[in-house]
Amino acid sequence: MSKYPVTRRAFIRRSAVFTAGAVALPGLLAAACDDDEGNGDTDATATEAAGGDGTATATEAGGNGETAAGGSLERIREQGFVRVGFANEAPYGFATPQGEVTGEAPEVARVIMEQLGVDQIDGVVVPFGSLIPALQAGRFDMIAAGMFINEERCGQILFSDPDYCIPQALGVAAGNPLGLTNYDDVAANPDARLGVLGGAVEEGYATAAGVTEDQLVIFDEPTSMAEGLQAGRVDAFGLTTLSVREQLDRLGDANLEMTEGFTPVVDGEEQLGCGAYGFRQEDQAFRDEFNSELVTLKGNGEVLPIVEPFGFTEDETSAAAEVTVEDICG
């Protein structure tokens, strides 16, 4: 297994200045979500740079020596904001060119937190594979990154019910010269190299299909993974259909294309890819109140209007309508 050095140029160019590791975007999500029409009426603004030049910059999470440990809803209400972890993966959770946090998961979380009496959401960006450790370490209060529920993760954190379910796809060269349509096809071609996101489910799906360690190239960000395909460092990369499409649209390269969606099979069972919100195990009361509001949103058909601007359709939201966390975690 190889790990290609991650290029953050595109991310830095499109957002605020980030340091390596976890960084916080204080008070930005409310601004991003309340200003759908771009009229400048926001409830929160970017923190000014220490240099006093008015430039909005990100700051290191926990830089004041404080953490979000013990993130009870009562404490969150008292402080007036909630910290959410995300991995800068569009369309699930990402930073805008203005450094605001948005995407499917942060937007839904904002609506729910407002119902719970919290009007401000601060974003903390970390590599996807660090989301659960950072949550457990108290760097933020919850994960809002479209993270799939699976058995391994259920043993580490608490999940809400899912708000979407979605198939996988591969990004490949135009014409799909190696004929790669799923992870089994990659496994069947020992010369094929597959890009996957560190800590994401795709690595597990691929290895379960028989993709070898030597065939895998691990990336920290979807942007660099798609650029790896463009540069010929991998023959394909695996993500959800929406994520693959988002990356290919971003690159605008006619030499790349997306395969049809597919559902991975592990040990003879189809793997339901459903995204939800993550909480520390000691924060069950917080999770339960959040989940109660989410169930109401789902039941009233109010999730789709929130996530539709990010490319989601009724297919993804209706697929999760009757699915609960217990259905997946057991």
Structure report:
The protein is of the alpha/beta class and 330 residues long. It folds into 2 domains: 2-165 and 273-329, Periplasmic binding protein-like II (D-Maltodextrin-Binding Protein, domain 2, 3-Layer(aba) Sandwich), CATH 3.40.190.10; 168-270, 3-Layer(aba) Sandwich (D-Maltodextrin-Binding Protein, domain 2). Helix content is 33%, strand content 20%. It contains 14 helices and 18 strands. Strands 2, 3, 4, 7, 8, 9, 10 and 18 form an 8-stranded mixed β-sheet that branches. The radius of gyration is 19 Å and the shape is globular. Mean pLDDT is 83; it is low at 2-22 and 26-70.
Tell me the number of structural domains: 2
| Count of individual beta strands | 18
Structural class: alpha/beta
Tell me what the CATH architecture of the largest domain is: 3-Layer(aba) Sandwich
Radius of gyration, in Å, reads: 19 Å
Overall morphology: globular
Calculate the terminal CA-CA distance, rounded to whole Å. 32 Å
Overall mean pLDDT score? 83
- Unreliable spans: 2-22, 26-70
Q: State which percent range the strand residues make up.
A: 15-25%
Could you give a short account of the major beta sheet? 8 strands, mixed
Question: What CATH first level of the largest domain would be assigned?
Answer: Alpha Beta
Which homologous superfamily in CATH is the superfamily of the largest domain?
A: Periplasmic binding protein-like II
Tally of DSSP helical segments: 14
Assign the CATH topology of the largest domain: D-Maltodextrin-Binding Protein, domain 2
Q: Percentage of helical residues?
A: 25-40%
